[in-house]
Amino acid sequence: SPRPTLRAVLWFALSIPVALLLITVWRGGWYVSLYLPVMTLALIAADAAMALPNRRLNVECNLPARLFVGQAGSVLCKLSAEKQKRPVPLELLLEQTGEADAPRIVACFLTDARLDCSLPLVPRRRGRLSVEALWLRWKGPLGLIELRRRQTIEKVVDVVPDLHGIHEAALQFFAHDAIYGVKTQRLKGEGTEFDTLCEYAQGMDSRFIDWKRSARHRKLLCKEFRQERNHQIVLGFDTGHLMMEPIGGMPKLDHAIKAGLLLGWISLHSGDLVGGCGFDARFRNFLKPGRGMPYFTRFQHFTAGLEYRTEETNFTLGLAELNSRLQRRALVVLFTEFVDTISAELLIESLQLMTRRHVVVFVTMRDPLLTHAQAAPPD
Asked: Between these two residues, 194 and 273, which has the higher pLDDT value?
């Protein structure tokens, strides 16, 4: 519903002392002084009648599929009003929750009954950013009344680490051999996938002689294997309170996720299967390993769901749950942190059980402050 503006209140408040002053100067015109407040109220009513009605304003909001940490995104708002010929000044404000810059009011004009306006949305931490609603405010032609509207949106946007640096690093990784050209190369070695049979020659490993086929062909034949390209790589992220410690203005967990995204991108590009998990006091997230570059979008969505936790990490429960969910032998890359000997002993015990079936790479973060303090000359 329309509400009076500060200008309308001041006009009405000013009309009262002017009416009293008019009565004092001209006593015979007391009835004229009564018209001043009434005229002010009439102007307010006329301004409300000429203002753009709320029911004629159509609002449509489009949110981006995902946002990158520290990079500005935008919410595109399309406004239209039927049978509106006069320009209408509008003020728009987003109602949002999450780690992002405070929303600011965007002023624009609705002309020709249509308006396309972009509202900035700048996240500061990885996770999910919720946009609850869009607030609109406009005034009448005289500026005496004000109309407000809350347009419900209720959408969630995933906030992921910046991928520009990841793509550059991945391109540099694959550019090492670019000078030699691109060709199909079959990597032969002591893998697990059978490739072909060849006649035995001096220097070959006698363990790979196929005695049945050698007897059938009456000559020694050796098996050749090729390196398999469908390895399972599982990235495990510790989301406990120790991973919230900042390094270079960014939590350790975000550094780990950025490194994990780079490793996942290269692994998927090379034909391997990539999955992930997140745990702290209990097992939180799990992404089944998958292959193909389109799977990288799903892996991004998984990393956006890794929340910051303030709980102590239970390595025994987390690694045991991960070990039970992995059916095939896999390369497990564990991003974590510890500070006391008890946690380290429990972690080593759990890793020893996991290394019976899988290959484990243990990753911690190097603190540049400690490195600088150690390398600095004594003063």
From this structure: 273
Neighbours of 269 (CB within 10 A): 14
**pLDDT at residue 184 greater than cutoff 50:** no
User: How distant, in Å, are the alpha carbons of 38, 40, 60, 226, 295 from that of 34?
Assistant: 7, 11, 46, 100, 75
Q: Is residue 307 within 8 Å of residue 253, measured between CB atoms? A: no
The Cα 310–Cα 305 span in angstroms is: 16
Beta bridge partners of 90: 108, 138
| C-alpha to C-alpha distance for 117 and 15, rounded to whole angstroms | 39
CB 101 within 8 A of CB 122: yes
Q: 92-127 burial, b if ≥16 CB within 10 A, otherwise e?
A: bebbbebebeebeebebebeebebebebebbbebbb
Percent of all residues in the chain with a pLDDT value above 70, rounded to a whole number: 89
Which pTM value belongs to this model? 0.59
Mean pLDDT across 75-81: 89
Tracing tokens 């991928």 back to the chain, one arrives at 163
What is the amino acid identity at position 126? R
Sort strands 73-81 and 57-62 into parallel, antiparallel or unpaired: antiparallel
User: What is the full DSSP assignment across 256-283?
Assistant: HHHHHHHHHHHHHHTT-EEEEEEESSSE
Q: Measure Cα distances from 346 to 264, 285, 335 in Å.
A: 28, 21, 16
Mean pLDDT, range 358-379, rounded to an integer: 87
Pairing of strands 273-279, 232-238: parallel
Among 101-105, 165-169, 328-332, whose mean pLDDT is lowest? Answer: 165-169
Across 270-280, average pLDDT:
91
- Quickly state the pLDDT bin for 176 (edges 50, 70, 90): low
Are the C-beta atoms of residues 299 and 262 closer than 8 Å to each other?
no
Closest CA to 150 of 207, 93, 199: 93
